[in-house]
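BUG: 3D viewer hangs when loading the predicted structure for this chain

Environment: internal workstation, default settings.
Expected: structure renders.
Actual: progress bar stalls at 90%.

Input used:
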Amino acid sequence: MIQRIAELTSYTRGTTSAINRIRKTSINLLTNEEELLEFQGLAYKNIGVRFPLDFLQAARVFAVRNQRGVICGGFALAKGEHSRVIKSLPTEAMNTLKSQYPNYREDIFEITALWLCRSERSKTLSVRFWTKLYREVVRKKRPYFIYAFSSEKKKLGKIYQVVKPTRIFEGYTNILPGMNEPDHEIVEVGSVRAAHMAWVTQFSFLYRRLLHGRSAKKRVVYQ
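Structure tokens produced before the viewer hung:
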């Protein structure tokens, strides 16, 4: 019995600590050059792309800050006319995009620079992160969004399937400023309306995926 009480006390302390840590975590819009440069460097460290400052300034960039105020994740939303994904498309893929979405400059926005430091991932933070992204997607008031991901990331591709995307291209994209080398990518266009429906029709799947956090024993504070 004494051992059970000790275990419960330890679990309660751990849970309380986790809750306090998440409460002190924030997800905010970056508004000045210094913050964007910090995000730029950390995004490069985590996902291998150094997004140009002028691109970040033209986009809406959101950063996750941990309880120490350090950026440990984030994402960017860019209008179609500034989209790096669109600019990276080979000619044939670009023609496909134009034929299916003739008003792509006005109808499409890009989701990019999406990352969350592994040391900071938790079930609660994952839900907050993806919910924040969903809300900002809705606020863009454009019907479609475009994104790209490495063809090696099969699990990520399965998550994206809930929005019933249209595949525009699969293969090596054009190298853009900030990229070290070409990548074999999948480029898809998703529907905001389908994203709305996914929260209803695919809720159980999303719930399982979004709550796939890291063990507290493996978590090290990012600083």
